[in-house]
Q: What sequence folds into this?
């Protein structure tokens, strides 16, 4: 049944990816009407999360953010599909790295690199960094239950030389590359909620004390990686800018959890600047105290 669903769906996805951007966004507007006003996809979760994280705003202000978020959510979903057919030239025009030299300088240090980022703006298009880097790059993701769509997601990223590894594959792959003295870059979306049994650190995030995902910091320290943060900003519909900020070039000298705390602080800044572009459908505050 999963294969049949994939076979039926894939041609449609490919046709969507071939649409010019103006028509793609008209389709996004239509999908928004269905997702938000029709089925109300995770609307309750989004509304609760925004109320928790931004209690200083009025109900009307939060409702405006909610609607803008769902429009953006539909956009990035279709932008991900567009990646199937988008050219590298088009991608480089729409997703610009403003200070790539900051990352490139870290490569010169001859140590592997951990990139920390949030589910913010066009985090899917950040995969285009692989067109510019020299290190072999790996994106860490949660495996999709449908193996055919899981392969599709992998294939989309492969277009930009990105290799995906699941959360379970991450440590074995890092160990393997470390033994081979292979310098690599690993991308961590570290704003997710860790499992409680795997929680080592709690801190306030948007004013609420929650468990913090410390895996990127712990692996960076164990395997002596440099750590960098990538901040993505939406300039206008379909156009983004990404900038880098070094979090540590000497991880073994940084007190425990300080790198993770700095990362979470930078994510908070992103959210306050333009909250409509954060992925509010995540149950980020399901564990809180």
A:
């Amino acid at each position: 049944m999963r294969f049949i669903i994939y076979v039926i769906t894939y041609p449609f996805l490919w046709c969507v990816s071939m649409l010019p951007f103006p028509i793609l966004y008209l389709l996004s507007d239509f999908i928004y009407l269905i997702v938000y006003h029709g089925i109300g996809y995770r609307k309750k979760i989004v509304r609760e999360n925004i109320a928790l994280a931004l209690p200083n705003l009025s109900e009307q202000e939060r409702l405006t953010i909610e609607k803008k978020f769902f429009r953006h959510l539909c956009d990035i979903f279709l932008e991900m599909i567009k990646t199937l057919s988008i050219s590298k030239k088009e991608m480089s025009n729409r997703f610009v790295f403003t200070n790539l030299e900051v990352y490139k300088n870290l490569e010169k240090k001859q140590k592997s690199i951990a990139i920390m980022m949030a589910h913010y703006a066009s985090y899917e298009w950040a995969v285009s960094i692989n067109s510019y880097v020299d290190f072999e790059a790996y994106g860490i993701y949660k495996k999709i239950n449908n193996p055919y769509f899981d392969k599709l997601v992998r294939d989309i990223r492969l277009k930009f030389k990105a290799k995906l590894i699941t959360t379970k594959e991450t440590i074995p792959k890092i160990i393997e590359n470390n033994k081979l003295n292979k310098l690599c870059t690993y991308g961590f979306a570290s704003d997710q909620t860790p499992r409680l049994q795997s929680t080592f650190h709690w801190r306030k995030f948007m004013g609420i004390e929650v468990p913090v995902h410390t895996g990127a910091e712990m692996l960076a320290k164990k395997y002596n990686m440099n750590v960098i943060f990538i901040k993505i900003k939406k300039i206008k519909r379909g156009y983004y800018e990404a900038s880098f900020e070094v979090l540590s070039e000497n991880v073994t000298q940084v007190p425990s959890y300080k790198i993770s705390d700095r990362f979470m602080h930078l994510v908070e800044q992103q959210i306050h600047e333009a909250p409509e572009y954060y992925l509010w459908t995540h149950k980020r505050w399901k564990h809180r105290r």
About this structure: The mean pLDDT is 92. The longest helix spans residues 59-82. The CA atoms of residues 94 and 238 lie 6 Å apart. The beta strands are 95-97, 113-117, 136-141, 163-166, 184-189, 202-205, 208-211, 226-236, 239-248.
